[in-house]
Amino acid sequence: MPKYQKGKIVEGIVSGIESYGIFVSFDEFYSGLIHISEVSRNFVKDLHDFVEIGENIYVEILDIDENQNKLKLSIKNINYKKTKRKAKRKIIETVSGFNTLAYKLPTWIKENLEKSKNVTK
Fold first, then answer.
1. What is the reported pLDDT for 1?
2. 13 and 44 Cβ atoms separated by less than 8 Å
3. What are phi and psi of 93, to 5 degrees?
4. For 23, what's the count of Cα atoms within 13 Å in the CB-facing half-sphere?
5. Residue spans of beta strands (DSSP E) within the chain
6. Is 9 helix (H, G, I), strand (E, B) or coil?
């Protein structure tokens, strides 16, 4: 079974950005182009708003040129961004906890009431 097939979604690295499309590299043999018309259903002013060089993205293979090892690609109908999971942080409770909020709240209310009186004058 060939590694690249029409309709398959694969991961690649953005290797270049031109006004007409985005170049994507896959391995030492295959590369491809996402034509600007295959980036979004909406008007695309600047391709740099979608990807950066060196970024890993997912692409859909529209067509394959086996003679030149070139792929015609699209990101229009897929979630092309590789999602990064944020590391979970353990919540560390402080000694004072919410006491600081309870202590400061009356002062904050008073300050904002005075500001709103000045605005309405």
1. 59
2. no
3. -80, 135
4. 11
5. 9-18, 21-25, 31-35, 56-65, 70-74
6. strand
